Amino acid sequence: MILLIDLCYREDSLSRDEFVGPVERLLRRSGAPFFTRHYTAVGAPELEAADAVILCGTALMDTGYTEHPELFRWLLSFERPVLGISSGMRALAAAFGASTEPCCEIGMANVEVLAPDPLFDGQEGFPAYQLHEYAVQVPDTFVSLAASDQCVQAIRHRSLPLYGFLFHPEARNEWILERFLGLVTPVTGRSG
Amino acid sequence: MKIRQHIILILPWRRRPQIPRLTRTVCRIPPFAARALPVPPPQGLSCTGEKITGTIMKLGVLFSGGKDSIFACWKAMQQEEVVCLITVVSKNPESYMFHTPNIRLAALQAEAAELPLVEVETAGEKEEELLDLKRALLAAREQYGIEGVVTGAILSIYQATRVQRVCRELDLWCFNPLWNADQEAYMEELIDAGFKVVIAGVFSCPFDASWLGREIDRRTLDELREIARKYRVTLTGEGGELETFVVDAPFFAQRIAIEEASKTYRNYNGVLRIERAGLVAK
């Protein structure tokens, strides 16, 4: 079961259909079982039930989630696959101690693959949809996987399947999300 | 550039009981944190510790009179407060951003919805029209205090990107509730919710002149579905294959009656020009 986390300014907000809905539709099409929770409503039972987590993006002006870093500390000990999209990448990197720097990209930009990874296998680069005002400084425990001419676009933990994408794969690059789903191994009867 | 303000007094908000509304409450957040508004703290407490039920944003809807912007407006009304409609009237028929055949009737639709309309004219030259959009949003902010903008963009990165950039410049939120929508589900919801939409322009094979003026009902949707499959056009017309005009919506206090219209059509390109229309009771 995949846990989809809504980072928008309010549960069931006007931004939900824009940033969570497209990912939900892709999961539905892929036949991947999932459930969605707002970031303020994620607790031990939700994390226990999750074989993987996707942290969705937010509107440019929507930075409320950054004011609650305590709600993302579970990422430090969650060893199953995680994908943070745009704001979700920021939340993931922040949990690992990374700071941000201004970097505004709005619209399509070319992304160049820098390091081999199963998610980008066979790709040297691709155009991707951007909607962000900040980029993250790569945490020490992560590697840079891809970059635009402005900033790092994809990171991965050095030893765990934790990914952050600054671009929005759900718009024009669904294939990357589908590859991420390939990393998810359903675990039944998980305990503690 | 001319800015015309169509101000229709809004008294009967109670006419829209079908729209669930949140309660506006005051959250005394210091100015340095204002950028994060309207984010309620996670435990439902305001910054001063008082119980809050939510905050509502004042929004302007970028409005063309077609189904996407009016449906987006309806979506926005269910979550936030729509305080005005904003229309950019392009004189350039080739404008990718703003041109629609019956844009002048946006004022009548605004009247039907009992919402004020901020209307801006633009020559429609490619990047110049963005300056006109910016002026329109500024006027809406000054007149109606909008904190954000709603668009009906579905797939067009060209349009969505440009609006996003202007909103960022003006520190306005930008909402695209139809972004990447499931086109099938959207069209079904449009009909189920009671929107009455007519086809006002066709710009692609195989649409002939008979499509002009047709209402998008279940039978028409079935035909559109078949055409979308066979000719690889978008079901919603977002690819520029169709233009639409909304004559009724769930939040309209009155509906629009088209009294006189003319058709021009040639080689899969046609427009229904509404010459005369009025408001009638629902």
Describe the structure concisely.
Chain A is 19% helix and 31% strand. With 192 residues, chain A is of the alpha/beta class. The model of chain A has no long low-confidence stretch (mean pLDDT 95).
Polypeptide structure, described:
The complex is a heterodimer of chains A (192) and B (282). Chain A is of the alpha/beta class and 192 residues long. Chain A has one domain (2-181): Class I glutamine amidotransferase (GATase) domain (Rossmann fold), CATH 3.40.50. Helices cover 19% and strands 31% of the residues of chain A. A 9-stranded mixed beta sheet of chain A has the order 2-1-3-4-9-8-7-5-6, sandwiched between helices. In chain A, a hairpin with a 4-residue loop joins strand 7 (142-147) and strand 8 (152-157). The longest helix of chain A is centred in the first third of the chain and has 10 residues, at 21-30. Chain A is globular, with a radius of gyration of 15 Å. The mean pLDDT of chain A is 95. By secondary structure, chain B is of the alpha/beta class. In chain B, strand 2, helix 1 and strand 3 form a beta-alpha-beta unit. The radius of gyration of chain B is 19 Å and the shape is globular. Mean pLDDT of chain B is 82; it is low at 7-53. The A-B interface holds A 9-10, 12-15, 17-18, 21-22, 25, 39-40, 59-64, 67-68, 71, 104, 106-108, 129, 131, 133, 170-172 and B 35-36, 38-40, 42-43, 54, 57, 75-76, 79-80, 148, 150, 157, 161, 164-165, 167-168, 171-182.
Q: What's the helix and strand layout?
A:
The complex is a heterodimer of chains A (192) and B (282).
Chain A: E1 2-6, H1 16-19, H2 21-30, E2 34-38, H3 44-49, E3 52-55, E4 82-85, H4 87-95, E5 100-113, E6 125-136, E7 142-147, E8 152-157, E9 162-165, H5 174-181
Parallel strand pairs in A: 1-2, 1-3, 3-4, 4-9
Antiparallel strand pairs in A: 5-6, 5-7, 7-8, 8-9
Chain B: E1 3-6, E2 58-62, H1 67-79, E3 81-90, H2 106-113, E4 117-122, H3 128-144, E5 148-150, H4 157-169, E6 173-175, H5 183-192, E7 196-202, H6 218-231, E8 242-248, E9 254-266, E10 269-281
